[in-house]
Amino acid sequence: xxxxxxxxxxxxxxxxxxxxxxxxxxxxxxxxxxxxxxxxxxxxxxxxxxxxxxxxxxxxxxxxxxxxxxxxxxxxxxxxxxxxxxxxxxxxxxxxxxxxxxxxxxxxxxxxxxxxxxxxxxxxxxxxxxxxxxxxxxxxxxxxxxxxxxxxxxxxxxxxxxxxxxxxxxxxxxxxxxxxxxxxxxxxxxxxxxxxxxxxxxxxxxxxxxxxxxxxxxxxxxxxxxxxxxxxxxxxxxxxxxxxxxxxxxxxxxxxxx
Length: 258
Ligand code: ADP
Ligand code: MG
Description:
Number of helices: 9
Bound molecules: adenosine-5'-diphosphate, magnesium ion
Oligomer: single chain
């Protein structure tokens, strides 16, 4: 099945978000299909992180709609009326979405394994036995089986970020959001994290990846979306957007990062 015919997983229509008088997201339309890898590029301050945070219920949008897996972010339908979600409902919806940030954000006082089982046990009410078994599988998948009992501070940045990815996957998300996951890493550690992400893409995970790693976008993305000043400037397959960009703003951005 090609991506174009896969079911829609994320749909954004006319999304606006302001901080005070600073209009940061100014009418974003975006469709991400199940199994699609979308790389989101754009200059610093163009609203990429804000938009990801809106998808993940971390920010409330001012206008427009976002839906994930057919459910509106922030709202519940009842008949033909919309009700704002309560905190418990938001927590339950958010557990379908994994997010990995530039800073690894592991719990420093917990071992690697404890980091992975905490949310599945507390939020998803998994049994400790099955959560631990799943955590060990995931650590194996990211090449860190032997680090289960280590504390985050004893790991390299690349290892910590691989744990952060495994921790997000432990919740069995339908969607993974990555916000510049390799930007805080020493250059020699970037590859091991991108390799894990590439494996995840190969396994069919739906991913939105904010990144400046153009090589990764070229090789792994189904779709490259270029944002500037809170809008989508252009979007399409990497061969089109990276090799033959239609807009001057995309061309000048690519000239700086390539
Ligand atoms: P990007 O990720 O593309 O670099 P961001 O979404 O982080 O862009 O930021 C877009 C704009 O929104 C910037 O001008 C930034 O200063 C502003 N901004 C981001 N987060 C906040 C916040 N929590 N409060 C106020 N302004 C913010
Ligand atoms: Mg950002």
